[in-house]
Structure formats: C-alpha cells, structure tokens
Amino acid sequence: MEVKAEKINPYDDSRCKTEQVREMFDSIAPAYDFMNRMMTFGIDKLWRLRAVNMLRRKSPQHILDVATGTGDLAMLMFKKLRPGRITGIDLSPGMIAVAEKKVAEAGLDGAIRFMNEDCLDLPFAPEVFDCITVAYGVRNFEHLDRGYAEMYRVMQRGGTLCVIELSTPRSPLVKPFYKFYTRHIIPWVGKAVSRDVRAYSYLPESIAAVPQGEEMLQLISEAGFKNCRCRRFTFGTCSVYLAEK
After folding, report:
1. Residue 17 contacts residue 142 (beta carbons within 8 Å)
2. Which of 180, 32, 60 is nearest to 131 (CA)?
3. DSSP letters for 101-139
4. Residue 93, Cβ neighbours under 10 Å: how many?
5. What is the DSSP pairing of strand 238-244 with strand 226-233?
6. What is the Cα gyration radius of the chain?
7. Per-residue model confidence as pLDDT tens digits over 122-132
C-alpha cells in the first residue's frame, strides 16, 4: 500500500524524514505540551484516557510506549494501569528531556524508563512487551510498515497494540471548520508560540495524508496483527486503533 504520509516531510525533500522529524520535535519540545492543549482545547487528555481505559481489562504488565514524546501517555498508563514496567522511546532527545523532567516533578522517578531510540529499529529482543502504545506518532514514521513490523516483533503473543492518531472528520458539516482551523489557525499560533515556521504547517498536512480507518487497519493487519478494530471520537478528529498478536 502506498502511504502518502511517508512523503510528507517537516521541512524539505533533501533529507530523510526520520532526521527531519527528530529535528522538528527537538525544536518544538519546550512548547509541545502547551500547543497540544491549545490545538485540541484539552480534549487530547480525554482521548488518552479513553484509550487507556480500553486497555484496563488486559492488565498489561510490561508496556512499550513508542513515540512517547513528553511522556503524557506513559505517565497516565502508570497511574491508571499500574503495570510492572513502562518503557518510553522517542527519536527526539529534546522531547525525552521534557518527559524525564515531568516524571521527576510528579515523583515518578524510576517508574518509567525513557530511551532515545528509533521506532523503525527497536533495540529489544523478540516478544518482550505485552502491550505497545503509540499516541499521535505513526504519521511521523518514515516507513509505517516497518514500524508496525518492529512492534509486532517485540510484542508477546496475546499482547495488545493501541494506536491513537489524529484523523479527518467525515461529516460535511464539521469538515470545513476543521480544515480552516488546522490549516490556518494552528500554523499561525504555532509559529507565534514555537517559532518554528514549518512545524505546525506540517501537522495538518500529515494528518490529511496518514492512512485512516480501514486503510490503517489494513496496514496493521499486514504486519501480522489480528482482531484489528477502530473507534472514532469527537466528530472523527481522533481515532483509536486496537489489535492483538
């Protein structure tokens, strides 16, 4: 399957996407949490909570949080699920630094281990984790099929995959307002707050290009996962994908 999101780069076409994504998130790391709250009016917290509640019945004990960013999902999973171990990985050293500071301030030192790693080449043995999560990250993968294949490789049999990703509303009533907001308001505010002119123009482009719904489920299935399903929230602006090994 051709994945258009893989062709959308944060800055230019002269370098690989992975390198540019690392650079972009290093650049916006100090403003990232503020921009998340502003862009979604705080609803991103509810989306994470709903996804975590979907994992409760599985009672995962060894969780890998891919593209962990500033650690919001990892910290929420620790508080709500109380697993034995959580490992968060991210390309960006800047984002990891923010995550580690937040964990320390929350008194969760030692509860979550953060690592600066590439999701396309995970430094783990096969079948280590019983749950793998990705929040708002898969659209930044240079190769989605390799990313899913790596997650499948390091997941235990019977384990659960949970992917949270922004998506485009289907409603003809909501879609025009959504497009105006993401293509004009978010880039303008992002430029003012983060001073990275390109980063928050890349966001709506990558959302529009990333596989959604059945296309995303097909990619997950092709990596070997089974029982793949999707739930949409808030007029379809966020999708949560669940699957099992």
Report:
1. yes
2. 60
3. HHHHHTT-TTTEEEEE--TTS--S-SS-EEEEEEES-GG
4. 12
5. antiparallel
6. 17
7. 999 999 999 99
Q: How far apart are CA 194 and CA 34, in angstroms?
A: 10
Whether the pLDDT of residue 2 is over 80: the answer is no
The DSSP bridge pattern shows strands 112-116 and 85-90 to be parallel
> Strand 62-66's sheet: what is its strand order?
112-116, 85-90, 62-66, 129-135, 155-166, 238-244, 226-233
Q: Please tell me the distance from the alpha carbon of residue 141 to that of residue 148, in angstroms, as a whole number.
A: 10
Q: Which two tokens stand for residue 48?
A: 């994470």
By C-alpha distance, which of 109, 104, 73, 107 is closest to 88? 73
pLDDT for 174 equals: 84
Per-residue pLDDT, 188: 82
134: closest CA among 21, 242, 2? 242
What is the distance between the alpha carbons of residues 20 and 13, in angstroms, rounded to a whole number? 10
| Whether the Cβ atoms of residue 59 and residue 84 lie closer than 8 Å to each other | no
- Tens-digit pLDDT profile for residues 163-180: 999 999 888 888 888 888
- Residue 218 sits at φ, ψ, to 5 deg, of -65, -45
163, containing H or E segment: strand 155-166
DSSP state string for 164-201: EEE-----TTTHHHHHHIIIIIHHHHHHHHH--TTHHH
Residue 204's nearest CA partner among 163, 235, 234, 168 is: 168
Sign of torsion over alpha carbons 237, 205, 5, 134: negative
pLDDT in tens, 89-148: 999 999 999 999 999 999 988 889 999 999 999 999 999 999 999 999 999 999 999 999
